Amino acid sequence: ATPTAVMVATGVGASNGVLIKGGDALERAQKVMYVIFDKTGTLTQGKATVTTTKVFNEMPRGDFLKLVASAEASSEHPLAKAIVEYARHFHFLDEPVDATSRKDSTISGWLYDVDDFSVLPGRGVRCFIRGKQVLVGNRKLMAENGIIIPDNVENFVVALEESAITGILVASNSEIIGVVGVADPLKREAAVVVKGLEKMGVTPVMVTGDNWRTAKAVAKEVGIQDVRAEVMPAGKAEVVRLFQKDGSIVAMVGDGINDSPALAAADVGMAIGAGTDIAIEAADYVLMRNNLEDVIMAIDLSRKTFARIR
Ligand code: ADP
Ligand code: MG
Question: Which of 168, 180, 239 to mutate to test the pocket of ligand 1 (most atoms within 8 A of CB)?
């Protein structure tokens, strides 16, 4: 392709909300054999909502939610945001306040004070509330902290996971006290894009830090056969390298901080425009419309631009 053709293609991309960072990236996209999709926020809307809460001790539901929301309030994770949002609604429905104070009330106004807060990427959060250690996250987080998951809790979580819901475990004082179920629906176009890629001879793959059962249920819904779950943030780049081993050209599509090493490792990194700045920086393509159809558009554009010279 001539420099002019590359410029034209870049312009066509830009006018469709696909920002291409350079001619090399544009050229590589035509040869993509695998597209690895992050799950949360990429295949899914990233607008998680709480579907269930279950308390396994005598704590009133409102107190439980306040505790969990307090622990999650400083986290940027979509799951954390969903929990805080839900707890806020629950709180203000429970304790009627007048319209003005409701409008002014900030999260910090009604949540517990939190000490020693830390984010554990791919696992959850940990902090201290009223002198007790509070953990909110997945099984790995509990295992790392020596917390045993009783059978009734495990069964409850498995049932959620089998219906594509992520079960978030909550522990206080080294005991599981409850579970929050969070669902994150697929983007409307996700399944059509997966089919479209297959028609183009491109194999779609899903990678996620989420658990195997939820991951498989979501993959089934979207029509992806090849799933890699319970992958730690650093492991996503490893998955990319695995697919590159035989010389295959690999695209990665992601939105999160935890996707940026994989976006950088991929031959073609595509960041969702609504994603985090770090992901956008690491990528070769930015999909500004947040529409997965643009993954197909980007590959098509590259194929058409470079077809003539082959
Ligand atoms: P993904 O790869 O799907 O974007 P992450 O790597 O961010 O997922 O997280 C993997 C898993 O770790 C989540 O599915 C959840 O179980 C747990 N987790 C991560 N952050 C949090 C959080 N702030 N609160 C609760 N659970 C979390
Ligand atoms: Mg994500």
Answer: 168
C-alpha span between 126 and 123 (Å, rounded): 10
Domain that holds residue 210: 3-45+186-309
Instruction: Give the domain CATH number at 192.
Output: 3.40.50.1000
ipTM of model over 0.90: yes
pLDDT per residue as tens, the chain (310 positions): 788 989 999 999 999 999 999 889 999 999 999 999 999 999 999 889 999 999 999 999 999 999 999 999 999 888 999 999 999 988 877 555 554 454 445 555 789 999 999 999 889 999 999 999 999 999 999 999 999 999 999 999 999 999 999 999 999 999 999 999 999 999 999 999 999 999 999 999 999 999 999 999 999 999 999 999 999 988 999 999 999 999 999 999 999 888 999 999 999 999 999 888 899 999 999 999 999 999 999 999 999 999 865 4
- The verdict on 174 and 80 lying in the same domain is yes
Say yes or no: CB of residue 160 within 6 Å of ligand 1.
Answer: no
Which sequence positions are flagged as catalytic?
38
Q: Which domain-ending residue is among 136, 168, 183? A: 183
Burial 147-165 (b: 16+ CB within 10 A, else e): bebeeebbebbeebbeebb
Residue of the CA atom closest to atom 21 of ligand 1: 124
